[in-house]
User: Which sequence fits this backbone?
């Protein structure tokens, strides 16, 4: 591995925190090549009427720099 670029993003899901992370990586991979790492920084949720309606994860993705 050469240089790794790190970017932060937020993933969301109506199902779970792990699904929110998977969705974030899948979305990023549409425009970013060579994703090598993902780090979950924080997990939160939106609650309405006593029920979780949206799971959120703040993540860092690391991808290899291509010169």
Assistant:
């Amino acid at each position: 591995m050469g240089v790794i670029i790190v970017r932060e993003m937020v993933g969301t899901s109506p199902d779970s925190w792990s699904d929110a992370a998977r969705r974030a990586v899948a979305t990023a991979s549409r425009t970013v090549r060579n994703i090598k790492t993902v780090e979950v920084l924080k997990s939160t949720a939106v609650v309405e009427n006593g029920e979780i309606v949206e799971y959120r994860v703040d993540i860092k993705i690391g991808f290899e720099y291509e010169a």
The longest strand covers residues 35-48. The two ends are 13 Å apart (CA to CA). The chain has one helix and three strands. The chain has one domain: 4-64.
